[in-house]
Amino acid sequence: MDGAVPLFRMEGISKRYGGVRALEKAELSVISGSIHAILGENGAGKSTLIKVMAGVVAPDEGRMMLDGSEVTFASPAAANQTGIVCIFQELSLVPELSVADNIVISDPPKRFGMIDRKAQRRIAEEALARAGAADIHPLALVKDLPLSRRQMVEIAKALARKPRILILDEATSALTAADVAKIFGVLKRLRSEGLALLYISHRMNEIAELADQCTVYRNGRNVASYAAGSKSDNEVVELMIGREYSHIFPPKPVRAPATAAPVLEARKLSWTDRLDNISLSVGAGEVVGLGGLDGQGQRELLLAFFGVLRGLSGQILIDGKPVAIASPAKARGDRIGMALIPEDRKTEGLMLPMTVRENLSFAALDRLSRAGIIDRAAEQRLIDDMVALLAIKTAGLDIPVGALSGGNQQKVVIAKWLMRQPRIILLNDPTRGIDVATKQELYQLMRKLADQGAAILFYSTDYDELIGCCDRVLVLYDGAVKRELVGAEITERALIASALNIHGEEMPVGGMAKTPAGGMAKTPARGADA
Amino acid sequence: MKDWRYWLAEQRGTLLAFGIFIVMFTIYTSNHPAGFTANVVQTASNKGVLLAFVAMAQTLVVITAGIDLSVGMIFLLTNCLASWLVIGTGIETALGVVAVLGTGLLCGAINGAIVIYGRLQPIVTTIATGAVYFGIALLLRPFPGGSVNEDLADALTGRLFGVVPASLVALLAVVLVVWVPFSRSVLGRAAYAAGSSEMAAYMSGVPIRRGKFAAYALAGLLAAIGGLFLTFFTYTGEAAYASGNAYTLFSIAAVVLGGVSLFGGKGSAIGAIFGALAFRTIGDLLFVFDFDPLWQPLFQGVILLIAVSLGAFALFRVRNRLEWFL
């Protein structure tokens, strides 16, 4: 392989959406047999760059060269045919079709003009095995699989297309640690087979482990390219956000021992086989974290508080008084005053085609209306407050919320709930797939709300966040609280150890054991490189 | 290892429709004065296949998450056309059949082209085109009349070897020639994929447009086969507005009974066929139990509600309320 000649080059690529400049003369060179990391904040142009490369979006100007000759792509299919395959952040699987159907979907094996199901099955099994996901049954319907398994199917599907250039856009954000380890193995093998890989991730440790070359984008331009490992994390982050990178996390206040009854309390909550006898309390002004491997019941616990689960046993107490929360409508009502920032903002958090304004006021409409008529002036005041408070970047309040960047969409979800001034705020992995700057703003906001007296229960798959944001962390394992970490006890080591249900000082970080529930830690073992 | 379980889960809707039909048909024949005879089966078959063809047509479009409110009108139009063309010598009759089927295909293709390339909503498009097709049917047959090659008609509505209803054999043949290849082709899969998640399908480079177009066009063809059989049964053509509307609505009922999801991406024409046959059996049941035929619409509605509720039973077992919305 002649590594010096780029396999693929993008030159002077520009793209505008209305008045918004997504790409401005962006450049990119990709070399065979290497992993190239793309870094940048949300809105820096990474997604658009990838979409141009994958034939989803046509650039306004600029050209793309593959093997030294110019190419244009009219559709994703055209890009696929040249060997450019992209694993999108938004899953591109068809839910009602089987895993095997999905894996071969762009080019099914044919026999006498019809799809050869035996060959299809074989290809699917091979691809799943190659992606290290042989545990997934090829006949299972995609809609029946959990998110992390779907992501593995997505990767298997990409591999089945025999790519020359494979683009992974936040492909690991929904994966468990064991899956991430497998995928890294697969990616390294593909690199040694001469593929060019483009890797987009917000996780610096993943980039440090994988990448050969990094390119940082900011405001639609590439601002720096360097060999991986030649810059410190701080330098990289500075390049990305283009400003001084100081304290990520706001300081935690020293808390006096609680005297009043906790705002939110659970006693012996159990639900099917997912929640097992969970007791916890969150006081006013407190940020309590939920840790542990992914899929250990954290999500279900939040849903239980929010009145979504049926057949719940145990007790939920608000201000020390037992309550029955029968629905989200009741949970958010004045008596309880709860808000849940859901995991999947695109389906549970937002109505994507509706406007920013409508999305913002949905949860608070009852407070903004009299006899069913919305007080437009009051609505506007509250919306202006929220847009200013959260610094939501939008071209206007009357554009579809789907047009905003991921970080700003998440801000809209949060703002929507803050408009009700909730006393209890449940957050379900709110920083997934959003950029560093927005994350920092959210950390600050969380602490500010706590200081104003809110009780916050915060589930995160990122251990750094739990360490930086929480006064206490409850580590869940197999649906039960296994350990409570307070203050200085919250360390990465303690979190990982208790997440794996290991109580020794020394623990094997590399080999994460499979848990009974089949879930695994989402964050890759960071202790490994320490 | 558990392949059959996955198969079973996939076929649940079809099997349920099959079960409902068998139960109803058993009750019908065991209470019929003549019992389970070739004659009774032939009559039931001839009544059932018309709706079965139209329901198959509806299935194809519903799979793409669309709906075709013009199927009943294509059915009428081709009936009227057949009453002019499917007559004369063998060659003339054959050409007539080809012309009728071609017309159905064309009607479906027009629907597809408008929906896919014109980006109009299926429901609006097919209401409009359905009215146009009915208008043409009226021009062709302002009054009921015409005729058909009776040898062909009798052969296709009679019995094979004195036992098997020929119309049922024809239905089976259409399933094998149209539905099976379609459902196993790339285009068929594209239709399913487009119905389930059009965006994911697009991002995967699936030929969505061709898949949907094929579904609409073949729906027209299947409705035309229905229209042809209507002519074979009645020997005439008639542009009966109420009848066309009824077939459209019943085809949707049959599709739902047959376990085809109106949200698209799920179900099979086989299920819709059993749904259609079951739906038709309701009238026969009322007949053997000496009910006034006036009761028929009411009973059809009740049966439809029950069948749909059966499909919704799973909702009672949901313990996470978010699953209601999936």
TrEMBL record, chain B:
Predominant localisation class: membrane
A GO CC term attached to the entry: plasma membrane
Transmembrane segments: 12-29, 49-67, 74-91, 97-116, 123-140, 160-182, 213-234, 246-263, 270-289, 295-316
Subcellular location(s) per record: Cell membrane
Pfam families from the UniProt entry: BPD_transp_2
Keyword annotations: Cell membrane, Membrane, Transmembrane, Transmembrane helix
Annotated membrane topology: Multi-pass membrane protein
Listed GO MF terms: transmembrane transporter activity
Full protein name: Putative sugar ABC transporter, permease protein ribose ABC transporter rbsC-like
